[in-house]
UniProtKB/TrEMBL annotation:
<dbReference type="InterPro" id="IPR003593">
    <property type="entry name" value="AAA+_ATPase"/>
</dbReference>
<feature type="domain" description="ABC transporter">
    <location>
        <begin position="1"/>
        <end position="234"/>
    </location>
</feature>
<dbReference type="InterPro" id="IPR003439">
    <property type="entry name" value="ABC_transporter-like_ATP-bd"/>
</dbReference>
<dbReference type="GO" id="GO:0016887">
    <property type="term" value="F:ATP hydrolysis activity"/>
</dbReference>
<keyword id="KW-0547">Nucleotide-binding</keyword>
<keyword id="KW-0067">ATP-binding</keyword>
<dbReference type="InterPro" id="IPR027417">
    <property type="entry name" value="P-loop_NTPase"/>
</dbReference>
<dbReference type="InterPro" id="IPR050093">
    <property type="entry name" value="ABC_SmlMolc_Importer"/>
</dbReference>
<dbReference type="Pfam" id="PF00005">
    <property type="entry name" value="ABC_tran"/>
</dbReference>
<dbReference type="InterPro" id="IPR017871">
    <property type="entry name" value="ABC_transporter-like_CS"/>
</dbReference>
<protein>
    <submittedName>
        <fullName>ABC transporter ATP-binding protein</fullName>
    </submittedName>
</protein>
<dbReference type="GO" id="GO:0005524">
    <property type="term" value="F:ATP binding"/>
</dbReference>
<keyword id="KW-0813">Transport</keyword>
Length: 315
């Protein structure tokens, strides 16, 4: 089990992380979601052991991970970090890149393992292609396969799918996260992608200004989008007074995502003026104005600009 207790971490004067504590069991998948610059990559590098933690402790199976001041070669051997820049050898083939991280004692076994890993990242057809001929997204996938070759117990992924198109991404996420579960490899993913975090993780941490803003299962987090910051990861955020829906007097505000508002067939207290409809495939995201502020809701059809529909809370 990984146990992380970070009291504080700073780059020179600037404090980046404070009071970040969590535990992760073997085989579990944690996603760390947070806006740019909130400290996600820093957290991964502290766990991996390329940054030195002075205020706090990080341990694996109760054994403290001491960091680069105590290790000749920074980075723990049973942990692999796949970062935004990849350590690949451009002039050798994909197979050779991956094999570099294998035992090289049994060539048949190594060849089978290379094939298995290329299959996980859907690059079997490129086995004998030199890395320099690959696209950015393909290189990202080779880096993943190379990290898995060393059979890590803990895999740290920093924006692992940032250069991969939606079609490839969905397939890769399913095969990769299934592979990790089957092999009992724990994983921490730093991401901006809330859909990925909801679908694939066992636990989710929302980081805000270097602190844990929320922590729980994806379902728990999604049920408690009680601040604009939290809700903002999952779509456009509407902040509306409770009195826009209910007659009782209240100063309470409701934080609502677009799917929580819908057009009413009958008159309601919330009449808006449509500004624009954005086509999203099987629905439209409608931008409308109410009391000089924009709000967003979903609708099955386009609504012409200037129309004045009534809205209600979606059940
Ligand atoms: N080597 C460094 N020296 C000084 N400051 C740094 C260093 N690396 C990162 N920072 C700062 O620390 C903060 C956190 O950076 P970090 O890369 O951990 O954020 P992040 O959440 O991963 O961001 P992103 O999502 O954009 O990758 C940022 O304000 C960044 O400018």
């Amino acid at each position: 089990m990984l146990a992380v207790t970070i009291d504080s971490f700073s780059y020179s004067e600037k404090q980046v992380l404070k009071k970040v504590s969590f535990q992760l069991n073997k085989g579990e998948h944690l996603s760390v979601l947070g806006e740019s610059g909130c400290g996600k990559s820093t957290l991964l590098h502290l766990i991996y052991g390329t940054l030195q933690l002075t205020e706090g402790t990080i341990s694996w199976d109760k054994k403290p991970l001491l960091g680069p001041s105590h290790n000749l070669i920074p980075g723990e051997s049973f942990i692999k970090l796949v970062a935004q820049e990849y350590e690949l050898m451009p002039f050798t083939t994909l197979a050779e890149n991956i094999a570099e991280n294998l035992s090289r004692q049994n060539s048949k076994k190594d060849a089978d393992r290379v094939s298995e890993l290329l299959n996980v990242v859907a690059l079997s057809d490129f086995k004998n292609t030199k890395v320099k001929f690959l696209s950015g997204g393909q290189k990202q996938r080779v880096a993943l396969a190379k990290a898995l070759a060393k059979a890590p117990e803990l895999l740290l992924l920093d924006e692992p799918f940032s250069s991969i198109d939606t079609f490839q991404k969905n397939h890769l996420q399913r095969t990769l996260f299934l592979y990790l579960k089957k092999n009992n490899i724990a994983c921490i993913t730093a991401t901006h992608d809330s859909e990925e975090a909801l679908s694939f993780s066992d636990k989710l941490i929302l980081l805000k200004d270097g602190e844990i803003d929320a922590c729980g299962t994806p379902e728990e987090i999604y049920k408690d989008l009680s601040t604009v910051y939290r809700a903002g990861f999952f779509g456009e955020v509407n902040v509306l007074p409770k009195t826009a829906f209910f007659s009782e007097s209240s100063s309470e505000e409701l934080i609502l995502l677009p799917h929580q508002l819908t057009v009413s067939d009958t008159e309601t207290k919330l009449q808006v003026t449509v500004k624009k409809s954005y086509f999203k495939g099987y629905y439209y995201l409608i931008q409308a104005e109410w009391k000089n502020k924009d709000l967003f809701f979903l609708h099955s059809e386009i609504i012409p600009e200037g129309n004045k529909p009534y809205l209600i809370l979606n059940k």
